[in-house]
Amino acid sequence: MFRNQYDNDVVTWSPQGRIFQIEYAMEAVKQGSATVGLKNKTHAVIVALKRAPSQLSSHQKKVFELDDHVCMSISGLASDARSLGRFMRSECMNSKWAFDEPLPVSRLVGAIGDKLQRCTQFWSRRPFGVGMLIAGYDVSGPHIYQVEPSANYYDCKSMAIGARSQSARTYLERNMDAIATSSREELVKHGLLAIRESLPGDKELTAAKITIAIVGEDEKLSVLDDDAVAPFLSLIEQEEAAVDDGADAEADAE
Q1: Average per-residue pLDDT in the chain?
Q2: How big is the CA angle at 221 (ends 220 and 227), to the nearest 5 degrees?
């Protein structure tokens, strides 16, 4: 992308019908570390890849709790995400105060979409440079929503955003039917395998780099980090070791 006479503000259209400021914001999403959201019939799961700016600093927070039944994972500018997270928490609290019940996930996503859209209507504002995956569970079941800086949002079966997320989306598409009928533990396993696809070839998936969020039927939101993630990673390692042992046994038999 190049600087041109049509990208000075967010209200100027190019002759091709494009708003470059919004496209630049969507490019910022592609620079963030990958995050994956997926669901089955009873649960919604977020698996996020954390990134540390340097070896001297801690990993940046990728998953934000919004209420007992909903959370979001982000890719892009974390400062923009914190601002949007505060807004969504306020919406959830207002619903509980006014109606004494959790805010439906679809209404929450609609509210954040309206807030994002207002930033594309005034020259003095800029789009939020963050993409979000919102996972939640309400009376209509589990949900995974993708929200873009353009204010578009989509109800997804599974989705991955962030750097090198195309490989993760390919895994999700290839295993779509298995994910839809999987158990809670299998759902997390598919999320970890999908996020592993987005790693560079010389990097390994470790508990320090992963955050897992789980919410579902009769289960309040739980966010797992570090040692709490290790059992799910060991489950994948055990299954892969069993497959390798079976392959070696077949080779010996031949």
Answers
A1: 90
A2: 120
